[in-house]
Amino acid sequence: MNRLSLSIRALFLIGATFLPHLTALAQDDATRRIITEGKEHNQVMQHLDVLTNRFGGRPIGSDAYDNAATWMLDQYRQWGIEAHLEEAGELPVGFNRGGWWGRLIGGPHEMTLHFVTPSYTSGTKGIQRGHVLIEPKTEEELLRMKHRLKGAWVLVGGQSSGWPISHTAASDSLRNAIKQQNRQIMATNDSLRRISWEQRKAYKPQPLKEFPGLFYNEMVEAGVLGFIQRASVPLRALYDRAMLADDNCNFYNLPQVADIKLDEQQYDEIYRMAKERRDFWLEFDIRNYFKLGPVKYHNVVASIKGSKYPDEYVIISGHLDSYDVGTGAVDCGTGIGPMMEAARLIAQSGAKPKRTILFVAFAGEEFGLLGAQAFAKSHAKQLDKVSNLFNRDGGPTPPVGIRVPQAMYDDFKSVCRVLETLNPEIPFQVEVAQPRRKPTQMGGTDASVFAMQGLPTLSFTEKDVKGYHFSYDEIWHTERDIFNKEIPEYQEHTAIVTAVVALGIANLNHQLSREGLYKTE
Predict the structure, then answer these.
(1) What's the topology of domain 29-92+295-506?
(2) pLDDT at 22
(3) How would DSSP label each residue in 35-70?
(4) Between vectors from CA 436 to CA 433 and to CA 439, what angle results, nearest 5°?
(5) Between residues 327 and 6, which one has the greater pLDDT?
(6) Is 26 exposed, middle or buried (0-12, 13-18, 19+ CB in 10 A)?
C-alpha cells in the first residue's frame, strides 16, 4: 500500500469518526434556525387569518373547504414542500352558507333576532314574513289550526342541541308510534275524565308524549315557512347527519323549510306572545345553498422526505373541516395553523430529517372522522412504520409537556431538552406514562382511528399558563368559534414546539419503541 492510499484511508477513517458528530451539529443548527425563525418571524396567525377570515367555516362539501384545501397546497409548494390531495370520500350533495338575519315586527317592541341554522338545512325563499304559531300536540289541534299553518313560523318544543329536526323515514316511523301512543293516552284520559265526572272525584290525566315537530310532514304540506326551536347561548349548530346518511338523499329531495335555532330568551318571549295570541310577525332571510352532488372531499397531505429512512414516518395532523356558523378558528384552526407553520419552519431551516415527516389535514372529522378513516385504510401498509402521530384538536392553549411510555422517555427527553429553556413563562416537561388500554372504537378525535391500529398517538399536554380564561365549551361547534378566540402567543409557541419535536423524533437513529404503549391484556 503506497503513501497516497494510506492518506486516503486515514482521511476516510477520520471522516467516519466525525460524520455522526457533524450530522448532529447540522441537526442542532436546524433546530436553532427553527427557534430563531419561529420567535422572530412566526406566521401562524397569518395562516389562521386566511383560513378563518377569508374562507371561514369549512364543512366538507362546501366551496370554503375546497378553497382552503387548494390554498394549503399552494402554500406548501411555495415553501418547497411536496403536497397533494387524497380523495377521502363523497357526499350526495354539497352545501354553502350565505348570510342570515331575522327580526320581530309588531308586538310590544321590534327586535333583531339572534339565531343560527344547522348546515345542510334549507334557507328561506328570499325574505319571508309570517305570523307565529305554537306546534300542535294532537291531531285535533292540527285540524283546528290547519288553515292558519300556511305562511306561519312554527315554534316547536325541546331544547336544541344543535341538530336539525329529523325528517327521515326512520323519524317518521318514530313520530307515528308516538302519535299512536298519544291516541291511547287520550282515550285513557277520556275514560278517567268520564269516571271522575260520574263519581265526582278528581283525577290526574296522563301527560302526552312529546316530540319536536311531531306533525312535521303535515305542517310542511300545510305550507309553513319554517320551524323555530329554543337554543341556549352561545348558539350551537351542527348538520343534517341523518339526511346525508340516507341512501335516498339527492339534490331533488332536499328539505324545503328553514330549521331555526333561536336564542332562548327571545324564544321564550315570542312563545309567550304567541300563547297570548298577539298580533306580530317574524321576518327571516336565510341564505343556505345546496350543490348538485355527488361532491368529493379530500385530505391534504404534505411531506418532507426522509434522507435515510424515507419509508418511516412522523405525522403531524389536524382536521381542516369545521362547522360554519363560526369560522372554525379554534376547532380546528388550532390544529391546522401550527401544523402549517411547523412545516414552514422545518423547510425554512434547511433540515434534512432522517425520516419522512407528513403533514396531514384530515377531511370530515366533524362528520365522523371520515378523512382519518380513509387515510388509515389507504396507508395501512405504512402504519407500522409511524413513530408517532401528533394530532392537535383542542383549544388554543400551548404545549407544556408530554407523557410517554418508559421505553420512549430517554428519546423524548433528549429531543425536548431544548424546550425546557425555550420560554421560561411556558415550561416544558417530559413525564413517564403508564400503559393505556388500546381503544376498540373511535373516539372524539382523528387520533383515535390510528390508536385503534396500535399506533402511538402521543399528544402534548396543554395548559392556559398565563390565564387567558379560555373555555372550550364556549366555542365548541358554536357561533363563537372565531378568530378573536385565538391566543397568538400560544399559537406561535405551539408551532415552534411542534416543529422541534417532530424534527427531533424524525432524526433519531431508530424508530420509537412501542413497548409499554398499550396494555398487553
Answers:
(1) Aminopeptidase (3.40.630)
(2) 47
(3) HHHHHHS--HHHHHHIIIIII----TTSHHHHHHHH
(4) 145
(5) 327
(6) middle
3-class state of residue 484 by DSSP: helix
Taking residue 302's Cβ as centre, other Cβ atoms within 10 Å add up to 24
| SS3 at position 18 | helix
The two beta strands, 152-159 and 226-231, are: parallel
The tens digit of pLDDT for each residue in 424-462 reads 999 999 999 999 999 999 999 999 999 999 999 999 999
- Can you read off the three cell numbers belonging to residue 359? 403533514
Based on C-alpha coordinates, what's the Rg of the chain? 29
Helix (H, G, I), strand (E, B) or coil at 414: helix
The class that CATH gives domain 99-291 is: alpha beta
Mean pLDDT of 467-473: 96
The continuous run of DSSP H or E covering 312 comes out as strand 309-319
Q: How far is CA 518 from the centre of its chain?
A: 27
Q: Output the CA–CA distances (angstroms, integers) from residue 334 to 140, 230, 392, 487, in the order listed.
A: 52, 30, 7, 10
Question: CB under 8 Å to 152, separation ≥6 — which residues?
Answer: 130, 131, 132, 133, 224, 225
Please say whether the dihedral angle defined by the alpha carbons of residues 143, 146, 148 and 152, taken in this order, is positive or negative.
positive
Query: Which of these, 371, 388, 326, lies nearest to 58 by C-alpha position?
Result: 326
d(CA 165, CA 220): 12
**C-alpha closest to that of 462 among 520, 391, 394:** 394
Positive or negative, the CA dihedral 309, 310, 316, 318 is: negative
What pLDDT is recorded for position 203? 81
Prediction pTM value: 0.93
Q: What is residue 14's three-state secondary structure?
A: helix
Domain chopping of the chain, boundaries: 29-92+295-506, 99-291
What burial class does residue 24 get, using C-beta atoms within 10 Å of its C-beta: 0-12 exposed, 13-18 middle, 19+ buried? exposed
* Phi-psi map region of 472: left, alpha, beta (phi>0 left; psi -120 to 50 alpha): alpha
- HEC sequence for 235-287: CECCECHHHHHCCCCCHHHCCCCEEEEEEHHHHHHHHHHHHCCCCEEEEEEEE
User: What is the pairing mode between strands 280-291 and 128-134?
Assistant: antiparallel
The helix/strand count (H/E) of the chain reads as: 14, 16
Q: Per residue in 346-391, pLDDT tens?
A: 999 999 999 999 999 999 999 999 999 999 999 999 999 999 999 9
- Contact between 81 and 303 (Cβ < 8 Å): yes
CB atoms within 10 A of CB 196: 14
Strand pairing class (258-263; 226-231): parallel
**How high is the pLDDT of residue 450?**
98
